Amino acid sequence: MPEGPEVETVRRSLLPRLLGATLVRPRVSAKKLRTPITKKDLRDVDGAVVTELFRKGKLLGIRTERGGGVFVRLGMTGRLVVEPKTQPPALHTHVRFDVCGPGAASGTELRFVDPRRFGEVVPFKDEVECALELGRMGPDGLALDDDDRAVVRVRLQATARAIKDVLLDQAVVAGVGNIYAAEACFVARLSPHRAGSSLDDDEARALVSAVESVLQQGVRHRGTSFSDYVDGDGQRGDNARHLHVFQREGEPCRACGDVVRRVVQGQRSTFYCGRCQR
DNA sequence: CCACTCCTGCGT
DNA sequence: ACGCAGGAGTGG
C-alpha cells in the first residue's frame, strides 16, 4: 500500500502525537508478521520517551531516549495509527502500545494494523543496528542531493533491466513503489520497458528528476489513497486524482488523449501511454 | 535475473 | 470461483 510519500505522510501525522510521549505496555497478537515479534522483543522500548520519528524510503523508525527503537515496515496493507483507547482496535491489529503523553496525548494507543501481514515491526537496539539497516537502502528519493542524483543515474544506466523494475529496487533509490515508478516513467516520457543501459544522460537525468517530482507531489497531496491507505490520524490522501497513468487503464492520457495501457511487468501491473512514452 | 512466496480482502 | 492489490525476500 504505502510508498515513500505515504510513509512520510504517516510520519508527519504521528509527530505531534508521539514526540515526547512515552510508549508503555507493548502487546502483540498471536499472528506471525513477516518477522515474528514478541512482547519481550519490545521491552527496551517499554517506558521510553520517543525522541525521534524518522523515515528512509518506505521504512519508518521510532527512536527513544535510550538510543534504540523500532522500525515499522508497512508492507502492502500496514497502517500505523494513534487512536483513543475507547475505540476498539481494528481487526488485524498486531502491535499496540499505550501512549502516555506529557500533554493531552494520554488515553491513546499506538496501533500497527496489517491484514495481509507483509509488514513488520522490528526493534533495533542502538545506532549501529539502525545505521546497518538504513545502509541496505539506496538514497531516499525524497531527499536526494547532487551526488545522490549522479549515483542513481549511473546505477540506472549500468543495468540492462527495464527501468520500471530498476526504480522498484530499494537499493537503487529508496521509497519508489509501483505507483510512483509508473508515474515517474510517464513524467520522464520514457517507456517502462526501456533498458536502463539504453538511456542517454539526458534521459537518465530526466528520469531521476521525475522520480523526485512525483514523490514530492505525493507528499504535497498527503499520499495516494486509491483504496484503503490512511495516515496516522486515519485520514485519506488526495493524490489519486492527480495520477497520470496509474490505475487508469483504458482512460485517456491526460497529455495526448491516447488510451492508457496496462501490462504486467515483473509480476506487477504497469500503466503507461504508448504515445507519450518512448 | 526472473518467478514464486508470504497473507487477507475486494471487485467482477 | 478467480484475479488482483500500494512490498520484498528467497531460491532456482
Structure, described:
With 278 residues, this protein is of the alpha+beta class. It folds into two domains: 4-134, MutM-like, N-terminal (N-terminal domain of MutM-like DNA repair proteins), CATH 3.20.190.10; 146-273, Orthogonal Bundle (Helicase, Ruva Protein, domain 3), CATH 1.10.8. The chain has six helices and ten strands. It has helices at 4-18, 127-134, 146-157, 163-167, 178-187, 201-220, and strands spanning 22-28, 48-56, 59-64, 69-73, 79-84, 93-100, 108-113, 120-124, 260-265, 268-273. Strand 6 and strand 7 form a beta hairpin. It is globular. It binds a DNA duplex (12 and 12 nucleotides) through helix 5.
Rounded radius of gyration (Å): 20 Å
Shape: globular
Helix residue percentage: 25-40%
User: Any idea how many domains?
Assistant: 2
Secondary-structure element string? HEEEEEEEEHHHHHEE
**Going by CATH, what is the homologous superfamily of the largest domain?**
MutM-like, N-terminal
Q: In CATH's first tier, which class of the largest domain applies?
A: Alpha Beta
Largest sheet: 8 strands, antiparallel
Order of strands side by side in the largest beta sheet? 5-7-6-1-2-3-4-8
Mean pLDDT: 96
Total number of beta strands:
10
Number of helices: 6
Q: Any guess at the CATH architecture of the largest domain?
A: Alpha-Beta Barrel
